[in-house]
Write a structure and sequence with these properties.
The protein has four helices and no strands. The chain has 138 residues and is mainly α. 9% of the residues are buried.
């Protein structure tokens, strides 16, 4: 997002008449801030959902004791910093840590893929609208 602010602002400000520059600047700032907040909220929800699903699958596949599975379920909102019960042997501890890490990476991949898709959609939208604006000026 940080690297897109300057080009976006330049595009917005360059596409309006001087007498509408103040309004364009205000709308640009409001949309940029609102979009960032909504993206963080939505991507956070997606991350948590994918992490939960992946962790549930890995816990079932690993045949972990019920007490360990319950402990992991109670801490799921902590994502990658879930505390592993200390009474586990080193092999089980490593298995749990790997399940948590892989679940986090699964969620992160989905969020990054969504970010890429949104960036491509934004570029396509800009191409269409900037092209339409150029054609209407001629």
């Amino acid at each position: 997002m940080a690297i897109s602010v300057a080009p976006l602002t330049t595009t917005v400000m360059g596409s309006v008449a001087e007498n509408h520059a103040g309004v364009a600047s205000g709308v640009n700032n409001a949309v940029a801030r609102t979009g960032g907040l909504i993206a963080i909220a939505v991507l956070g929800i997606v991350m948590l959902h994918v992490f939960d699903h992946a962790l549930d699958e890995r816990v079932v596949q690993s045949n972990l004791p019920t007490s360990v599975a319950r402990s992991l379920q109670m801490q799921r909102t902590k994502l990658a910093v879930i505390a592993i019960p200390e009474d586990q042997d080193p092999a089980t501890h490593q298995l749990i840590r790997r399940a948590i890490d892989e679940s986090f990476v699964s969620g992160f991949r989905v969020v990054m893929a969504m970010g890429v898709a949104l960036a491509i959609a934004s570029a396509a939208t800009a191409l269409i609208f900037i092209g339409a604006a150029r054609n209407s000026r001629k």
